[in-house]
Amino acid sequence: MLSDFSTLLFAGGLISGMGLHSIVRQKLGRNRTARELVSTESMFRSLAEVVPIGIFTTNSNGDCVFANPKYCLITGQCLQEAPGSEECVFSIEGQCPSAESCGRTAQGKGWRNAIHPQDMEAVDAKWAALLTKGTPFSIEYRIQRPGSPLVWVHAQAQQECASKLPLGMYVCSINDVTANKSAEFEIQQLAFFDTLTGLANRRLLMERIKQAVVASTRTGNFGSLLYLDLDNFKLVNDTRGHAVGDQLLQQVANRLKGSVRDGDTVARLGGDEFLVVLEGLGKSQNEAGVLAESVAEKILNNLNEPYLLAGVEHNNSPSVGLVLFGENKTSADELMKCADMAMYQAKASGRNTVRFYDPEMQALVAARAALESDLRHAVTTNAFELHYQPQFDATGSITGVEAFVRWHSQERGWVSPASFIPLAEDTGLIIPLGDWVMHAACRQLAAWANDSFSAGLSLSVKVSGQQFRQADFVQQVLAVLERTQADPKLLKLDLNESLLLADVEDIVEKTNALTAHGIGCSLADLGTGYSSLSHLKRLSLEQLRIDQSFVQGLLTEPNDEAVTRSIFALAQSLNIRVSAEGIETQEQHDALAAFGCHAFQGYLFGQPLPAAEFEKTLESHRVSIRK
Question: What's the mean pLDDT in 2-30?
Fold first, then answer.
């Protein structure tokens, strides 16, 4: 144990620069040792006035009987000579606030008033051990000063020999370490928290998951991990900029924190991916599942509320994957993987929904990963071909064809477009794939211009929203036409209605530019999105295309018939032609013809064929449809 106060100061390492011993010698004499200097009460007080740390002493009851000016500055307290007195014992001009200004006193046990309530228990425990057992201590705690920010202090205390210090038996030194704590906090924030949202980052998340699994195994209570991904978040960044995208992420983070309990963990994994760790959901798996799903649904509802981004209202939804843990000890990585798979199942189910993890998902995800790898290789090697399906007018004459991309894999055989097109959209491979389709279609269009059977046929190409949103899309199309020498007037671009959810001004500008060069634009899959009349009026459209889903239900579903009639009425008001795809029966054709349809396409007239086969059957298709 340290023997006296001077030794405490030296051993604690609280004095830097000249050192306490040098300061004491300069102040009180060059030929006296520190031990001699503190041998009397007056010398102790003189020493306390010059050291750059706070010092106070207490008696055996814990009552403060002395404090130096630095203590006053750090805590904002004044030690009064006696109850009711207004003068400070250590009044030093410019340093010691008056008792009236601080409103508190360190007299008796009043020194405890400055300690932050949350730290009081820990400090009291240390002092109790010192007063009862003589155990010295070192602790950090917070000081509350009237009208000022919190101050962090490092305190050291020990019992002093009464013969050395008649003034008091216990001495405590405090040093302001607020700057150090601020630096530590900043380092911790950078290490464990996301800088944009303030949520836990991946590193802290993994620790929290591990702790939750251990606690769940020990207590028998189930927990849950929720994996959230924002639907179509990339569209926000692409159309409104990353600054607005950041605003959305911050608002999502705030809503997530407001949707769960204080003890639950909310983290941002990166990009638009968030995770929530729920603990203590009960000992029954069914009960835990119900509670976890209710939280997930609450999150879903909260995140579906409109957002105000840069003064403009915006709607966004999440897809949520959910996995329970508790019966068996599971690694954090495995839980993350399972929740991720559940989230992708939610997206595959139409987005904006919640899905539980199913072990069968493992096989589906593995298959998806393998398909993605094969697709990337196919895009690199241009392992695709175009098939062509004829389009007929009301007289039964072929007026054009639509190009469909097909993929024949050496390992998989023919891969359904329903499998690889959505995957290409999700992975961004649709852009290089779409570029290949545009080049191949225009080369074929130029070749058909030299054939008597095919000359004059228009060629329709579906354009992905990701393709169309590229800033230089129009320039890309014009460059392909120039390179292949295809006639721009025979190229028709089919745009998906969902494009109108994005930047309408950009769409209007690009369709006008394409039309100015003779390229026709159609709005495909009409009726499946959210287009409005005001938007359609501004677009340079050549025709509206009715989606095959409405054609299939035209004769059996009243709603499909009503939507179809509305589309024809809309087209008539805008003076735009209407075409229909997916026609499989004569009855469907006749009903559409009665509505005034201008162009027809579907398996009733022929399935998509490779160019060579299509050219062989082109002449045979130049007949009228039987009435």
Answer: 42
Helix (H) or strand (E) holding 574: helix 558-574
Structure confidence at residue 14 (pLDDT): 38
pTM: 0.55
Joined tokens for residue 85: 């007195």
Taking the C-alpha atoms of residue 153 and residue 575, their distance in angstroms, rounded to an integer, is 78
pLDDT tens, position by position, 465-493: 899 999 999 999 999 999 999 999 999 99
Give yes or no for a contact between 398 and 625, defined as CB atoms under 8 angstroms apart.
Answer: no
Domains located in the chain, CATH noted: 5-183 (3.30.450.20), 193-358 (3.30.70.270), 368-621 (3.20.20.450)
Q: At what angle are helices 20-28 and 41-50 packed, to 10 degrees? A: 120
Quick: pLDDT tens for 387-400: 999 999 988 888 89
Structure tokens at 84: 């009711």
Give the residue among 579, 533, 526, 571 at the shortest CA–CA distance from 550. 526
> How far apart, in whole angstroms, are the C-alpha atoms of residue 430 and residue 286?
42
CA distances from 246 to 205, 227, 234, 251, 620 (A): 21, 19, 11, 9, 58
282 by Cβ neighbours in 10 Å (0-12 / 13-18 / 19+) ranks as middle
pLDDT reported for residue 303: 95
